[in-house]
Write a structure and sequence with these properties.
alpha+beta, 4 domains, four-stranded mixed β-sheet, 23 helices
Length: 657
């Protein structure tokens, strides 16, 4: 038996009233023939049936694969939570690079850590359960109704939801937050992400309807990730969204800003009267009374700061640090732990990204030559202590999504049609004849250097008197822009290898604010970047690879990809009606991306590396779909007994073991 919304019930109720009215009318009006009445009765019954199937069923969550895809029932806490977790204490973390604003969605500047997740909220809460590729449960929204055709959706907002200043969260705030897409200073990443939401309409103070411009299986769930801003704060007339809200943050989340100093620190305070503290999705969540981030501009100082007890936990991103550091007396005494947290996340792609806006990189031959000169095997052995696996494609580390072997079936059909339609320059022959992998994979460095020199020769680049290749008076010289000096030890050997093929790579390390501005305007030659992926790729592929994103400042199409075959595949991905159609399109796109050599592939690691002081407790299950540092913020808690024992042991110099 279907349940109905108050609007659905009203419609069906009135159709029933009409049937009863006509029955009375027929009884009192003998002029209507029995045949006409039967026709009318059948018509009205059909309308009642259509109304009943057209009205969406209100649900406590959404899944990419319908209600049956929801793992959790109403009132059931996430399995990776501990509903009995204690509240209290303080968590101190570090962040690298100065922040310049408290607005998480404006175009310019670097947002403060934690703002987006702890101060502001989204309509829905995305599950991080390993068994749910893409499911959401009510966050600001009590119930959601999704139309059968997935082209419209109604949110029922919690009536007791409040912003931190006490103002109620209403449909006006949802409409306002959507309309920010038209704001020039709203970040273009979000404009791209939410572009297929056609309209947002207020039905009443706590009900809002979304209508979608296209069918996209993911779009209703994408909508649930939109940050909701209070209209009465960020919508004040005469105020600029991009510049007038850098120093304030008013949201509906569990924390407020207690104090901050740009570029130095920020402390968030938990709201003990937070409106959402008793919701099912928040059981055992947001447990620290205060969360502080200390800002570091030097990674060495940050590492030493942790070892000195200046902050509580550090996610280690350096294989060298993991292998050689964090071995001192405090580790032996058990003052802080060093632990691997395995994960099953899609690896995505990390690498040296070549910006094709620089004409040097416009040639596929040149890109291949530059890519095959990077000696991963040497780096992994001598620099990474054998901890990493080479990235072979853009959806690595996931057997369902990673393309394997030579393309066949529908993937082969897709690639063949696209090659015929758009040409070999956009869909290279190797995408159909070779598996995914890195240029020169499995060959020695000397062999790869020989092949790279031959490729550059054939592309018309001639070795000059100074050993640097030249073509049409332009030297093959470019700059690698880094955000951290940590990468110098990796970049320098690569630089030396490039010299062997007549390529000069200069290296520059920029401060984070300058770095972000350069990236936003694509004013670089090469950068180190990563493209994380999920088990449910969709809309976000547009601002990574689409031709439109290549022309949009602030997008993540750093390589300047303008490939109509990829554009077409993104359209298929976004509109995919089934899991198989989605995976086929993803694998076809992955093969084109990989065989176009847009990036020099790096590596990935299938576990998070964490060091942390022994004053916390955590749930029995770690959600591997979230980075461990996020799980600490949301699900760990300060353990008073552990903290006391640590303090006493540290003071007396005895072991905790």
């Amino acid at each position: 038996m279907r349940r109905f919304t108050k609007y659905g019930s009203f419609l069906v109720f009135n159709l029933n009233r009409m049937l009863k009215y006509q029955l009375v009318k027929y009884t009192n009006n003998k002029s209507m023939t029995r045949a006409n009445y039967i026709i009318f009765l059948v018509s009205m019954t059909y309308m009642l049936f259509v109304a009943s199937i057209a009205i969406a069923v209100p649900n406590h969550g959404l899944s990419l694969y319908g209600p049956k895809g929801l793992k959790y029932l109403p009132g059931q806490a996430y399995k990776y939570s501990d509903p009995e977790a204690e509240k209290g204490g303080q968590l101190v973390l570090s962040d690298f690079g100065a922040f310049t604003k408290l607005n998480p969605a404006s175009l310019k500047g670097v947002p403060a850590p934690g703002i987006g997740a702890l101060i502001f909220q989204t309509p829905m809460d995305s599950s991080a359960d390993d068994a749910e590729p893409f499911s959401q449960y009510g966050n600001l929204v009590e119930k959601v109704e999704l139309a059968e055709d997935r082209l419209s959706m109604i949110y029922h907002i919690y009536q007791h939801a409040r912003f931190s200043d006490g103002h109620p969260v209403t449909a006006d705030d949802f409409v306002f937050s959507f309309n920010l897409i038209k704001e020039p200073e709203y970040h273009p990443i979000y404009k791209q992400y939410f572009k297929d939401i056609k309209t947002v309409e207020k039905i009443d103070d706590h009900t809002v309807k979304y209508t979608f411009a296209i069918f996209n299986q993911e779009l209703p769930l994408i909508t649930g990730q939109m940050t909701i801003f209070p209209k009465h704060i960020y919508g004040v007339k005469g105020k600029s969204f991009g510049s007038d809200f850098d120093s304030i943050a008013v949201g509906s989340g569990p924390y407020t800003v207690k104090d901050f100093e740009f570029g130095k620190h920020i402390t968030l305070q938990r709201k003990t009267d937070w409106w959402g503290k008793n919701l099912t999705v928040n059981k055992g969540r947001y447990n620290f009374d205060q969360v502080t981030w200390k800002i570091y501009l030097d990674p060495v100082a940050m590492r030493e700061g942790f070892k000195g007890g200046d902050f509580d936990a550090l996610m280690v991103n350096s294989s060298r640090d993991w292998a050689l550091d964090f071995k001192g007396d405090y580790v032996k005494k058990g003052y802080y732990g060093k632990k691997k947290f395995p994960h099953t996340r899609v690896a995505g792609m990390q690498g040296f990204a070549m910006n094709q806006r620089n004409k040097i990189f416009s040639s596929r031959k040149v890109r291949a030559a530059i890519a095959m000169t990077f000696d991963f095997e040497w780096s992994n052995k001598n620099l990474f202590y054998g901890q990493y696996t080479r990235n072979e494609c853009y959806f690595d580390n996931n057997p369902e999504m990673k393309a394997s072997g030579i393309p066949f079936g529908n993937v082969k059909t897709l690639l063949t049609k696209l090659r015929k339609k758009h040409g070999a320059s956009f869909v290279p022959k190797t995408a159909l004849t070779k598996p995914v992998g890195t240029p020169g994979q499995g060959l020695s460095l000397s062999k790869n250097i020989s092949m790279a020199n031959a490729l550059l020769d054939s592309a018309g680049w001639v070795i000059g008197k100074d050993g640097i290749r030249v073509k049409n008076g332009k030297h093959m010289t470019f700059e690698l822009l880094l955000a951290s000096p940590d990468f110098m030890r990796i970049a320098e050997p690569y630089k030396n290898n490039l010299k062997k093929i007549g390529v000069e790579m200069k290296i520059k390390v920029a401060q984070i604010a300058e770095y972000e501005e350069i990236l936003r305007n694509f004013k670089f030659d090469m950068i180190v970047t990563g493209y994380g992926q999920s088990r449910s790729p969709g809309n976000e592929q547009r601002y990574m690879w689409s031709s439109e994103a290549a022309k949009t400042p602030g997008s993540r199409n750093y390589m300047g990809i303008e490939n109509p075959a990829i554009d077409e595949l993104i359209g298929i991905i976004v509109k995919a009606n089934s899991r198989k159609e989605l995976i086929d399109a993803i694998q076809a796109m992955d093969r084109i991306l990989t065989h176009q050599f847009y990036i020099v592939p790096h590596w990935y690691i299938a576990y998070d590396r964490l060091v942390y002081w022994q004053k916390f407790s955590r749930p029995a299950i770690n959600s591997s779909q979230s980075a461990i540092i996020n799980n600490i913020l949301e699900w760990w808690w300060w353990d008073k007994d552990k903290a006391t024992k640590l303090k006493e042991a540290w003071a007396s110099g005895i072991s905790l073991q």
